[in-house]
Automatic annotation (TrEMBL):
Subunit text: Homohexamer.
Ribonucleoprotein recorded as keyword: no
Protein purpose: Catalyzes the hydrolysis of inorganic pyrophosphate (PPi) forming two phosphate ions.
Keywords, in A-Z order: Cytoplasm, Hydrolase, Magnesium, Metal-binding
UniProt GO cellular component terms: cytoplasm
UniProt-recorded name of the protein: Inorganic pyrophosphatase
Keyword rRNA-binding carried by entry: no
InterPro entries hit by this protein: Pyrophosphatase (IPR008162), Pyrophosphatase_sf (IPR036649)
GO molecular function ontology, one term from the record: inorganic diphosphate phosphatase activity
Residue sites binding Mg(2+) 1 per the record: 73, 78, 110
Binding site for Mg(2+) 2: 78
């Protein structure tokens, strides 16, 4: 039986990864193909059911967050991890950052880092977003534009950016996290 300390929180206690911002550790919250929206409870570190999606859509890729980051929406930086398989929630995955989808949700920036599972050899030749099928990008954009529509909420997907811009987003989110959560000396 595995025991973890009661105060363990993957957002604060899992390292971002030695090769950051090129390859980061991602904590999966939602498996590819799911209609269930799980979210990290920031206080406890547990995964909680946020809701079942109102619309007839499914997550087109595995979805989670990057530990020790803080996005402009005051949450851990979101990450979409492409793999040929579904990855179970709360699994830590080494993810190669290949792009970012810029999004506005509730009037705040809500970047979605796009990555491929580093240890999925079927994706070993993908290093930048322009190497993905344009259809996948359209599908991802459509999902995020539609998944809240029956809740009467709108999101705006602005644009997809390359790996270099995505890595800058990761560095920015690390700096935000450090400003808020780093121990004061």
């Amino acid at each position: 039986m595995i025991h973890t300390p009661m105060n363990f929180n993957p957002w604060h206690h899992v390292e971002i990864g030695e090769d950051s911002p090129k390859i980061v550790n991602a904590i999966i919250e939602i498996s590819q193909g799911s209609k269930t929206k799980y979210e990290l409870d920031k206080k406890t570190g547990m995964l909680r059911l946020d809701r079942v999606l109102f619309s007839s859509v499914f997550y087109p890729a595995n979805y989670g967050f990057i530990p020790k980051t803080l996005g402009d929406d005051h949450d851990p930086l979101d990450i979409v991890v492409i793999s040929q398989c579904q990855i179970v929630p709360m699994c830590m995955v080494r993810a190669r950052v290949i792009g970012v989808m810029r999004m506005i949700d509730h009037g705040e920036g809500d970047d979605k880092i796009i990555a491929v599972a580093e240890d999925d050899m079927s994706l070993s030749n993908i290093f930048d977003i322009d190497q993905l099928s344009p259809h996948f990008n359209s599908e991802l954009q459509h999902f995020f534009e539609e998944y809240k529509s029956l809740e009467k909420k709108t999101v705006l997907v602005e644009q997809f950016q390359n790996a270099e811009i995505a890595r800058q987003s990761v560095v920015h989110a690390i700096a935000n996290y450090d400003k808020v959560y780093a121990p004061k000396v």
